[in-house]
Design goal:
Radius of gyration: 17 Å
Low-confidence stretches: none
Shape: globular
Number of strands: 0
Number of helices: 6
């Protein structure tokens, strides 16, 4: 997943062409996605929020720690590497455990 995202996703690397808003807009306009009948937005599917509820405090603490780290280092950085920052988060053992990344 990381290899695919690194080579395609504009969030991972701003040079990549893929942007979520563009993909979803085209898919809805083309009829590939029915915004009123979403496959993964039905009651029988669990929500992300429900799945992580037990780890909510841990995730919030982690996010706060990362934000503080980013803010502490931001004034000294002349070049910020978004890709490395996201990769560090995804490689963090706490995130892997909470998100069930294997």
């Amino acid at each position: 997943m990381q290899n695919f995202m690194s080579g395609h996703c504009g969030l991972m690397d701003k040079r990549n062409p893929c942007r979520c808003n563009k993909k979803v807009t085209v898919a809805v306009e083309s009829g590939y996605i029915d915004a009123k009948n979403l496959l993964f937005n039905r009651e029988e599917y669990s929500t992300f929020k429900k799945q992580i509820a037990k780890d909510d405090t841990t995730l919030r603490d982690y996010a706060s720690d990362r934000f503080i780290e980013l803010q502490d280092n931001l004034t000294y950085k002349t070049d910020f590497d978004n890709k490395s920052f996201i990769e560090q988060i995804l490689d963090d053992i706490r995130i892997k455990k909470i998100m069930n990344f294997n």
